[in-house]
Amino acid sequence: MDYRGAFLLMVVLTVMTLCIKTLYLSYPWTENSEVNEMHVREFNSFKVQNINCKRILDGEKTEILRAKSMVPKGIPDDETVLRHTANCVHFRTLYGYDNIINTVEEQQFPIAFNILLYKDVAQVEILLRAIYRPQNYYCLHVDGFSPDPVHKAAKSLADCFDNVFIVSKTENVVYESFQRLKADINCMADHLVKPDWKYLINIPGQEYPLKTNAEIVQILKMMNNTNDISCTRGVGAVLGRILFKFMNVYGENGTYSIVNTGAMNTKPPHGIVVAKGSAYGVFTRQFVKYMINNQIAKDFLEWCRTILSPDEYYWSSLNYNPHLQIPGAIKGKGKDERIKGSHLFHILSKY
Ligand SMILES: *[C@@H]1O[C@H](CO)[C@@H](O)[C@H](O)[C@H]1NC(C)=O
Ligand SMILES: *[C@@H]1O[C@H](CO)[C@@H](O)[C@H](O)[C@H]1NC(C)=O
């Protein structure tokens, strides 16, 4: 072989090597197939196989009991989620994310979700799989106090999707703290940057929907740009939590507890009558925009800093003070007797 022939052969071999390498890397099933096969085996072991869903939906006791007996004990740990999401293409294919039915009606009605979690990312993944659609947005707030593996697994899961993200500012959440409310607010602010979505729903990581995304879209459309936020006023509003000033007392290790200072709280600003609701609700985009940007909402949020469980007061109060004329909120004055019974205004919060 002459000099030129050898050179040509070298060029051909180099190009071939590069091609094979590119193909190899872009084809997920061949890349480390032993690992992938293990993931398939593990994933199948988490599933309840060979049950008859129709018979279960028809309420057949024997099939329900049979299915119950097959439910795996516990859920996969955070390390498993981390391993399975290391190869996103393989993960999405295996877990069925690329085969989700997504009607045109759903595609034209994107929803933003806040998911607050502190443990068990595998359970959050099961929830995500139930509500995941490419046009929706999902903000994951992982508690600042959660151990590292939870943060790592949640980040790895989020990184497998363009429309799932970790909140830009993480709060250290203690039960009944202002930080619990702030975690939702931080996700809401992040969501507002995203275009198109019509409604925002906040849920905890341990929730599971009883309706499909398509059904949720139809219900939200019927709500015609109004919120669904529950509300109780008067004695039911648990006044002890709002009459006194509460504050966080920080320990040496960064944790804190909430104590009642015994001092009386000031009146809420802007003539707001406090209404107690749930930490969870269904909010129109315009209402979220108001909560994040409007000065009245910001003033009221500051006032909420010194009450207990402000997540059960902030949006319900903004929703049930018609004089503020907030988009999506209650418009009429409403008789107080009617407002007292939260169920009267409670449509979808627990869909
Ligand atoms: C929906 O809201 C608009 C604007 O507030 C109103 O004009 C319309 O009547 C509402 N539609 C229904 C079906 O309630
Ligand atoms: C932090 O300190 C508090 C008391 O100040 C204690 O109750 C708690 O268990 C500690 N937490 C950790 C993670 O060490």
Question: What would your notes on this structure say?
Answer:
With 351 residues, this protein is α/β, with parallel strands linked by helices. Among the domains are: 78-222, no CATH class; 234-279 and 292-345, no CATH class. It has helices at 3-26, 33-46, 53-57, 61-70, 78-84, 88-95, 104-107, 121-131, 148-158, 178-192, 213-222, 240-243, 285-293, 295-304, 314-319, 336-340, and strands spanning 111-117, 137-142, 164-166, 199-204, 244-250, 256-264, 282-284. It has a five-stranded mixed sheet with strand order 3-2-1-4-7, sandwiched between helices. A two-stranded antiparallel ribbon has the order 5-6. α5 runs parallel beside α9 and α10 (178-192) packs across α13. The chain is globular, with a radius of gyration of 25 Å. The relative contact order is 0.10. The model is unreliable at 19-27 and 337-351 (pLDDT under 50). It binds 2-acetamido-2-deoxy-beta-D-glucopyranose (2 copies). The site of one 2-acetamido-2-deoxy-beta-D-glucopyranose (NAG) has 3 residues, from loops.
In a nutshell, what does this entry contain?
This protein has 351 residues and is an alpha/beta fold.
Small molecules (ligands, ions, cofactors) in the structure: 2-acetamido-2-deoxy-beta-D-glucopyranose
* Helical content class: 40-55%
Class derived from helix and strand content:
alpha/beta
What is the average per-residue confidence, as pLDDT, rounded to a whole number?
88
Sequence of strands across the biggest β-sheet: 3-2-1-4-7
Annotation, overall tally of beta strands: 7
Shape: globular
Unreliable segments (pLDDT under 50, ≥5 consecutive)? 19-27, 337-351
Beta-strand share of residues: 5-15%
Distance between the termini: 76 Å
Order of helices and strands: HHHHHHHEHEHEHEHHEEEHHHH
Radius of gyration: 25 Å
Q: Note the main sheet.
A: 5 strands, mixed
Work out the helix count.
16
Membrane topology: Single-pass type II membrane protein
GO molecular function: acetylglucosaminyltransferase activity
Transmembrane segments: 7-27
Pathway: Protein modification; protein glycosylation
